[in-house]
């Protein structure tokens, strides 16, 4: 197709709109010359090809543009008809999430994703996909691993909970691949899915934007974004994007205020006439705030209101988290059959947290009516005067000589207050080559990375807390490292005139990990644990274009997750390392898509079986845990989504999912997605905090200066947990046999799924209204007023709930909901209103 200078020439381009997640035909009508060519982003590489503008003769430009289209259309075809139940999130959905959301709450707009958090912004999000928790998921940013390689998610329990390595304002889009994705899209060590974030990139045209807003709970947001455009409007001119924003919120829960700062610098240097690119991205984000370490007692909430939280003078957890990410990349056009790319990256995260409990409270005394010592229950047996001071349990010259009785006159002063400092550093390399050979679209690549960590912990009765090695150092030194070697190969074979797509692939991974256990109150001397593991993960996907704009697809994939380094322990000989093997998932899915310019429909069935799941037992007398692979879980269900353009201005959308999540055998397990509760799951028990039904629905309106989005989110019923009474630990549940030698209920307050009580479902309604104000200032191109309302109807609901210290009744393994001293819960966010304004220049 030739592009000329005629003002009446019409250009029609049909492309796959991967950013919206709907395979709509994109019709671009050019009314002036030269007509632009739209080349979509390529999620395979994370790079968005930049088009030539402003130079060259029309005929030369036409040849050059046609060349670009031919090259990158082959990459685009790798996304079209993908044999997976992938969901894409575009910039409009990101905008709708607003200042009060997070990169995790954003994902809840897609099928089978459940998320809750205890604050506004990036505050302690808890995420599951098809019931699989966040620590078992992979996250990537432009193809590099974003999750913690040692533990999964953003790190070990209660680390990096405020802020995030990337934020909503720094994203241009996101893709969610539940289950097992093709090897060239699959992240590292996942048995539940891959979340692929795409970073904003600089544009070829200059622009500037200033934005700010204010809303409920003293929430404010202010920032700017600058796009330099291509230098001298040249095809190979360097271009840059600089964005900075900061926000503050008092939080809808008392005493959970937080402050965030986000910075992004993205550079792009095209070369080879715009066919190749050198890129550099720098992200520096900060988050400081107060978080809850566990749900709040329901009696307290009922008495004092939904926003109740203990005063800071009594107890709090404060975190100061920092995230630095640097990515250097190159994408090179070699010839019409080969495109090569590579990225090197550096990630450094720091988490400094203070967990404070006033010396006035004794954590060894458990009082349900005044449960300030909940965090200290598990170790309350140690918190006596006989355990501290010279010659007693924790007295270790050179490490720990702190004696609270001598300092505060109380044996328990400061023993449940900790200062924990930890940081991780990751360096890595991700090479990739795309080869187009006849009917084959081949991708070969790899991940070579190493992450190291270090931490320390101190206890004392005041804040700020002194950090004196050899005096109040509860743990000194130590750390872990993990080195990853992954290679993969995938092919997309196009047969029968591209109607049949077959996508085989395999990923091979070797992992060397070590953990230096520090000198601490549990260990008289430090020691090192090390392990090497490997796995092969095959994949096969098939899609076929049926008549009447329909596409059938099916896939099988195997995924593996390596054990966190903290799960390593001393072997039976006392010197060797005992390490669990990787958890394994076998994931199957099959579905059907209907794709036309005005209507898109998709439905799929999925089945995921996790074997070799991590199981553990902790001996609280020694502080040592042992880990083995004996667990099994099953997740199965259906998902559906659709979008319909009712008029040129009105679009209807929706999705829904049904999930049946069950334990396939009985074993000690982490039974909550946040990993704050450890206990025992029985064969046939439901997986908790995994709603059976999830759904989204809504409508968008765009006409002239007005736009609106009304969206509903439904979260169905979900099973909760309860804690066994310590007296119940004497017997095997459901029998009259003593628990001696039984690997299940071995200590009191152990948590288990509660089959007798389901947390009620709830429906929230969210609204985004926008108006582009006519302006007469030459420098201002667009002035936009926005109003974002979450939970418009003001629904009061719990998004997490469990029964604490419940009595067992009868011989049922989990019993029914009998007498409990209390329940604990998180309230969902109430109605929040946020008004903002932005000016683009």
From TrEMBL:
Question: Where is it localised?
Answer: Cell outer membrane
Q: How does it sit in the membrane?
A: Multi-pass membrane protein
Gene3D superfamilies to which the protein is assigned, alphabetical:
TonB-dependent receptor, beta-barrel domain (2.40.170.20), TonB-dependent receptor, plug domain (2.170.130.10)
Q: State the GO CC annotations.
A: cell outer membrane
Q: Which GO terms describe its molecular function?
A: siderophore uptake transmembrane transporter activity
Keyword Signal recorded: yes
**What residues does the TonB-dependent receptor plug domain cover?**
80-160
Q: Which residues form the signal peptide?
A: 1-30
Q: Which keywords annotate this record?
A: Cell outer membrane, Ion transport, Iron, Iron transport, Membrane, Signal, TonB box, Transmembrane, Transmembrane beta strand, Transport
Q: Where is this motif: TonB C-terminal box?
A: 824-841
Per UniProt, residues of the TonB-dependent receptor-like beta-barrel domain are: 325-792
User: Hey, which family's this protein in?
Assistant: Belongs to the TonB-dependent receptor family.
What is the protein's name according to its record? Iron complex outermembrane recepter protein
State the species of origin.
Answer: Acidiphilium rubrum
